[in-house]
Amino acid sequence: MRLRTLIVALALGGALAGAATEARAEATEIRLAKQFSMGYVQFNVLEHRHLIEKYAKEAGLGEVKVVWATFNGPNMMNDALLSGSVDVVAGGVPGLVTLWAKTKGTPEEVRGISALSSQPFLLNTNDPRIKSVRDFRAGDKIAVPAVKVSVQAVTLEMAAAQAFGRADYAKLDPLTVSLSPPDATTGLLAGGAEFSSVFSVPPFQQEQLEHPGIHTVLNSFDVLGGPHSFTVAWTSRKFHDGNPKLYGALIAALKEATEIINADKRAAAALWIEDSRSKLPLDMVSKVIAGPQVTWTMTPQQTMKFADFMHEVGSIKAAPASWKDLFFPEIHDIPGS
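^ thats the sequence. predicted structure below, dont judge the formating
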């Protein structure tokens, strides 16, 4: 009897230890990265409302630490994701497409989590001569968040292909310079900078247009033929597969954050101002968040137009068959594109 009791006790102890190990297997920390713009307001809400922590606790994960970082441009951000320095990043669709194509079929595979917003970005200038992309000359300079790889740079190539022909899609690339949206805005408004045009992001693009002499040359919605996802979030398969409960908590948190923004855009604007330490007035930021062309949604829109173009011009070697190839299955039931 004593031997049998001992065997049962050992078996029970092993089962409990196994359960404890399984419970500890998921990460106790999640690290998220964003860029400079008003395309990541869900992240502001997540941080202030502690939504990831809330849903992680509901999933039985206990106390989960949430860490935030900000990058300028997708290259540094994607490098951080691949190196394991961060778990979740967010940016324009080309940043996701680039990393998806680079990692497809490898242990480091990356896919999208969801979209965050659909809104246009504007190419503004202080040069009255420039009315369209056809008016740029060899001496002109266009500031973008990151040359060649940012969503603005790729959209400029798409606009050039439409204006000059597909063979000349890169015609305007030599004119682009990398600069963060805040610094680019400061230079554009001050005048005398090495650049006269900025392909920017909200709310900086709206701030630029508040000043006399600044006008819009190009709206990205016109290039894409309608509304498109501006910002999306993505992560590695390693994080997705290794942390099913935490990933589920992230999806639930993003859904609630999106609902919160749509329910009270002025309150969301106040959070963005606080987090970014912006001096822009609340009325202006609220107007941007509630703009007629702005939609806060997790549904990817026109991501395949970016992917198809990038594949056609050789920026990526592999092309997704559909938008669902770019995103993990948790959002496949929504009407994406």
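The chain has 15 helices and eleven strands.
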